[in-house]
Specification:
92 residues, alpha/beta, 4 helices, 40% helix
Length: 92
């Protein structure tokens, strides 16, 4: 079974994802964490096939998480999402 790690601190969005993705529970397991530090703990403890991360989170944001992944887990694909777009983020 595939494992998808979802890092986001927005409880409403996470609940929506849990409901929406539940119909795919036979195809992959979704693991939910609230920040980048929790995501790193999961990455270091079990195999992950895909990471979906918010950019703005407490403790460690998604960009720092991506930098860590680039060094330690460069082969894991990552999808970045945010509901707080800025002109700086759009330029990247």
């Amino acid at each position: 079974m595939k494992h998808v790690l979802i890092a986001d601190d927005d409880k409403v969005l996470v609940k929506s994802l849990q409901i929406g993705l539940s119909k795919f529970s036979g195809k992959f397991e979704a693991i939910y964490v609230q920040d980048g530090l929790e995501a790193i703990n999961v990455l270091n403890s079990r195999p992950i096939d895909l990471v979906i991360t918010d950019i703005q989170m407490p403790m460690m944001d998604g960009l720092v998480l991506l930098a860590f992944m680039q060094g330690s887990f460069p082969d894991i694909p990552c999808i970045i999402m945010t509901s707080h777009g800025t002109s700086e983020l759009k330029a990247q």
